[in-house]
Amino acid sequence: MTVTLKLATSLDGRIATAAGESRWITGPQSREQVHRLRAAHSAVVVGVETALADDPELTVRLPGYRGRQPARVVLDSRQRLNPDCKLVRTAGEIPTYVIATGAPDPTLVSHGVRVLSAPAVSDERPDLRSVVQMLGDEGLSNLFVEGGGQVAGSFLRCGLVDALEWFRAPILLGGEGRPGVGALAVAALAEAPHFRRVEVSVLGEDLWERYTRG
């Protein structure tokens, strides 16, 4: 099982302005590469806040692409996903999972969503170590985590991230912007998650930085 975290941020690590505007921080070449990375993974993972705010499809959209679509996974402990959203409406065509902490919502199930019930941690969020194991049991062996900031921080805090795919745009959003990585509760530098940079590429005006866990 491998977990890759994707970040698309400003130079100062922000994924949106203070008002929540985020489309598009990075350029078209970066977004195209993200679709290639999606195609290389068995599932794309997002938090429910991202799903509610953006109503994404989380599909591979490349010219001429006819390959397999990755499964979509939403971390949604209270099953707040709207039955009218794109993810639920297309669940019959593309495998779609909701990770909850209670019994499956019959409405989501009736639309073809597979609801997996995970143990809850203290803040009622699903325990991510259990989630990764459960998804592995479903045959989803390499996960592509796309957001948002709290989800990124949670995977990093749990030590579950094996690789980073970081797309960095040449803009600054400042401290009011929304961070790409949520709280890590790092008290000392020695406790910080460490990664090793393995590649840097230029994509249009952006930088694409690749890291593995160090």
From TrEMBL:
Pathway: Cofactor biosynthesis; riboflavin biosynthesis. It holds the Pfam family RibD_C. Residues 2-207 form the Bacterial bifunctional deaminase-reductase C-terminal domain. Gene3D superfamilies: Dihydrofolate Reductase, subunit A (3.40.430.10). GO terms for molecular function: 5-amino-6-(5-phosphoribosylamino)uracil reductase activity; NADP binding. SUPFAM superfamilies: Dihydrofolate reductase-like. Keywords: NADP, Oxidoreductase. Transmembrane segments: none annotated. One of its GO terms (biological process) is riboflavin biosynthetic process. Signal peptide: none annotated. PANTHER family: 2,5-DIAMINO-6-RIBOSYLAMINO-4(3H)-PYRIMIDINONE 5'-PHOSPHATE REDUCTASE (PTHR38011:SF7), DIHYDROFOLATE REDUCTASE FAMILY PROTEIN (AFU_ORTHOLOGUE AFUA_8G06820) (PTHR38011). This is Deaminase. The lineage of its organism: Bacteria, Pseudomonadati, Pseudomonadota, Alphaproteobacteria, Caulobacterales.
